[in-house]
Backbone:
């Protein structure tokens, strides 16, 4: 039976590893012995380095599910059902349904589960339910413990903020001031509140003074300064639950929790609470409205245009004019949004004329279908050749091949594989060349549509239209440049 072994750490395993116990290695040994005893053909071993979490964060499990749907194995070998995951019902359902639909058995040292058998499925559901309940109990117990410690003024977060170091205080942790770093924190708050300097000016001043940040360099970022200014820890407070987090396929999103816990900490503050409050008033007065409003976005280039440093260009109101500026404040000079839009339309017209010149008189029949057919044949041959190579390893492990025979056979097959790969790349390059010609023909009507309707659209609709055809715009402008002395690099995308 073709079997894929799956290993995953649990929270309890993490505690054992602190005592020097390598859980995954121990489990692997047990499962390999079981596989040998039951004559299971282990064709792959997947080791998950994360202890749990959402399914889309568990890379090895996602690979395993994809391979299950491709019928690459007949069974999954694991220590127990809960090792496959004990997150939410939705994630658990995806895992079990994939195994059931593809007739994948779940093998543990204690039992073999056939999910198409009603009794085994019921047994699996019960074990999965119990595992989820245990996980929730562990999470709730840990959370209550952290809340209780925070309420008592102890530091319950991970790394200590810049200016402090984390020290043990009984069974909990508190913070101790690092004098040299604390001086920098005082300078930041003094410049922000008393000298009325913004985050960009503070970054420049700290760099000019040669003061080093937490990464031991002088490259201070605006984001770091803003985080420091808003951190109550520097005023002797302990906070908990300040932001709520929600995981999704797009990444983790957070928002401010207005009812977060804030108490006096066991640690000494670097600044006074009164100074921290003054800083919050300054920050509120400096707040720049986001690009999105209740009536839609204000910036038609939102999410598309990036500074040459790689950071997003954002809209900022400056003397009642809307300017695009680098969100990192890297030194790239900003420009009025109207000038940028005009330049974009001008560059799109130029690009359209160039495309029209390229496709003019190119009424050649596409060879794409024939090339794709050749590519499919090569793909199949590549798979077969790789399978032959894999077989040589199995024969070596089974001692059917000696080392010399293995090396000779494997060398011939590897050489044949490389030739196939070169042929495959050659065909693939031809296909890309053909597709580029087709892409140009597809882009022409899309760009024409933008040029025809752009001026009559709202910023929100302009943004949607541009995103349908443009993947990225890179903005370049040097210090001391004239208002129109900037460049745009437009990367197009194809909507086939």
Residues:
């Amino acid at each position: 039976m073709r079997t894929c072994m799956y290993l995953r750490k649990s929270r309890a395993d993490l505690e054992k590893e602190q005592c020097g116990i390598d859980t995954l290695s121990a489990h692997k040994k047990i499962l390999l012995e079981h596989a040998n005893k039951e004559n299971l053909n282990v064709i792959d071993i997947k080791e998950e380095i994360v202890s749990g979490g959402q399914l889309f964060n568990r890379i090895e499990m996602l690979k395993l599910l994809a391979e299950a749907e491709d019928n690459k194995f007949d069974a999954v070998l694991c220590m127990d059902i809960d090792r496959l995951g004990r997150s939410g019902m939705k994630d658990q359902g995806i895992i079990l349904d994939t195994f059931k639909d593809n007739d994948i058995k779940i093998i543990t040292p204690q039992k073999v589960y056939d999910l198409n058998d009603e009794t085994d499925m019921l047994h699996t559901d019960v074990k999965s339910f119990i595992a989820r309940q245990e996980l929730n109990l562990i999470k709730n117990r840990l959370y209550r413990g952290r809340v209780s410690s925070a309420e008592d003024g102890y530091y319950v977060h991970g790394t200590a903020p810049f200016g402090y170091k984390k020290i043990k205080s009984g069974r909990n942790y508190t913070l101790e001031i690092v004098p040299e770093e604390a001086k920098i924190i005082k300078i930041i708050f003094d410049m922000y509140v008393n000298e009325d300097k913004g985050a960009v000016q503070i970054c420049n001043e700290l760099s000019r003074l040669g003061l080093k940040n937490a990464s031991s360099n002088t490259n201070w970022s605006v984001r770091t300064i803003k985080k420091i200014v808003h951190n109550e820890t520097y005023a002797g407070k302990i906070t908990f639950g300040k932001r709520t987090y929600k995981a999704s396929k797009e990444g983790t999103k957070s928002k401010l929790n207005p009812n977060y816990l804030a108490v006096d900490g066991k640690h000494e503050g670097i600044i006074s609470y009164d100074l921290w409050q003054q800083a919050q008033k300054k920050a509120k007065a400096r707040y720049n409205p986001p690009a999105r409003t209740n009536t839609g976005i204000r910036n038609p280039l939102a999410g598309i245009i990036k500074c040459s440093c790689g950071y997003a260009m954002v809209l900022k109101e400056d003397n009642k004019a809307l300017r695009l500026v680098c969100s990192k404040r890297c030194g790239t000079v900003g420009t009025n949004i109207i000038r940028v839009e005009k330049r974009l339309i001008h560059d799109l017209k130029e690009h359209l004329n160039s495309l029209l010149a390229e496709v003019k008189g190119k009424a050649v029949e596409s060879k794409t279908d024939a090339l794709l057919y050749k590519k499919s044949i090569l793909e199949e041959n590549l798979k077969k050749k790789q399978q032959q190579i894999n077989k040589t390893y199995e024969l070596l492990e089974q001692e059917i091949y000696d080392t010399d025979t293995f090396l000779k056979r494997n060398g011939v097959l590897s050489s044949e594989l490389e030739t196939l790969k070169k042929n495959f790349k050659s065909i693939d390059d031809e296909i890309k060349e053909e597709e580029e010609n087709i892409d140009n023909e597809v882009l022409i009507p899309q760009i024409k549509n933008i040029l025809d309707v752009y001026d009559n659209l709202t910023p929100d609709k302009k943004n949607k239209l541009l995103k349908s055809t443009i993947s990225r715009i890179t903005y370049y402008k040097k210090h001391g440049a004239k208002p129109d002395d900037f460049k745009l690099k437009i990367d197009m995308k194809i909507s086939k």
Observations:
- The longest strand covers residues 41-48.
